[in-house]
Each structure stands twice: as structure tokens, then as C-alpha cells.
């Protein structure tokens, strides 16, 4: 189910906005910060990607004018990814259709009770997975 749902929502996103799911994830993360910037290493961690994979993806997004890359003050090797006006416009235009796709293919198919149960299940699984991550870091 997850794979089919992800594939359908990704197809809709690409068709409606020209953005890939990873593009949307990066832009969404950047809009979640007050200054629309995120350190590359932290963003890679958030997306569960390697730094090199994200760096290559960011390069493609830079070519399309969605983001820019700046040096990180105090660390010559670090980079900060910054949302451009074009990137902000792209996610603002994509978001309503993306939300509609998620609703059409998932949320609107479920009853209020099913959504509540799903929330409880998600919280349980996330608590387990984040506890495992914390145990590995210790």
C-alpha cells in the first residue's frame, strides 16, 4: 500500500507541478524554517539520505533556480541550502494540488475512526523507531 500510494502521489505531484517528491521534501523542509535555510548535513539526516546524494540533488535543484547553496560560517566545508524566490513560488503553487492528491488517494478514503487508529499506530511505531535510533547513538 505504501509503495503504491507513494508512487501515485509522486506521479500526481510531477504532473501537476513538475516537482519530484524529493524536490517537494527539500522545499517543504526549507519553508518550515523561519529564514528558509537548512544546513546540508541536517537536511540529509532529516531526509534519511547520504550527504553526497542530497548534494547531487541540490545541484540539480540549483540549476532550476529552486535553491542556492551558501558556505557555512565557521566551517569552510559545510554548506547551507537556501530557498530562492522561485523555490518558494514553486512549493506554494504545488502544495494545494499535493494536499488534494493525498486527500483523494488516502485521507478521504478513511473514516474518522480509521484516521484516529492510524494516528495511534503511527505514534507507536515512531516511538519505537526513534527509541531504536537513540539506543544506537548511545
UniProtKB/TrEMBL annotation:
It comes from Nonomuraea zeae. This is Winged helix-turn-helix transcriptional regulator. Signal peptide: none annotated. InterPro entries: HTH_MarR-typ (IPR000835), MarR/SlyA-like (IPR039422), WH-like_DNA-bd_sf (IPR036388), WH_DNA-bd_sf (IPR036390). GO terms for molecular function: DNA-binding transcription factor activity. SMART domains: HTH_MARR. GO terms for biological process: response to stress. Residues 1-127 form the HTH marR-type domain. It comes from the Bacteria. The lineage of its organism: Bacteria, Bacillati, Actinomycetota, Actinomycetes, Streptosporangiales. Gene3D superfamilies: Winged helix-like DNA-binding domain superfamily/Winged helix DNA-binding domain. Pfam families: MarR_2.
Amino acid at each position: 500500500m505504501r509503495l503504491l500510494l507513494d508512487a501515485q502521489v509522486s506521479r500526481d505531484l510531477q504532473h501537476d507541478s513538475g516537482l519530484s517528491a524529493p524536490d517537494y521534501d527539500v522545499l517543504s523542509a526549507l519553508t518550515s524554517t523561519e529564514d528558509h535555510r537548512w544546513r546540508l548535513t541536517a537536511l540529509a539526516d532529516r531526509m534519511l539520505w547520504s550527504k553526497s546524494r542530497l548534494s547531487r540533488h541540490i545541484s540539480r535543484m540549483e540549476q532550476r533556480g529552486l535553491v542556492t547553496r551558501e558556505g557555512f560560517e565557521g566551517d569552510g566545508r559545510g554548506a547551507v541550502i537556501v530557498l530562492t524566490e522561485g523555490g518558494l513560488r514553486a512549493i506554494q503553487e504545488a502544495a494545494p494540488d499535493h494536499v488534494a492528491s493525498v486527500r483523494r488517494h488516502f485521507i478521504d478514503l478513511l473514516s474518522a475512526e480509521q484516521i484516529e487508529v492510524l494516528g495511534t499506530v503511527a505514534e507507536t511505531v515512531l516511538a519505537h523507531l526513534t527509541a531504536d535510533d537513540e539506543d544506537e547513538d548511545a
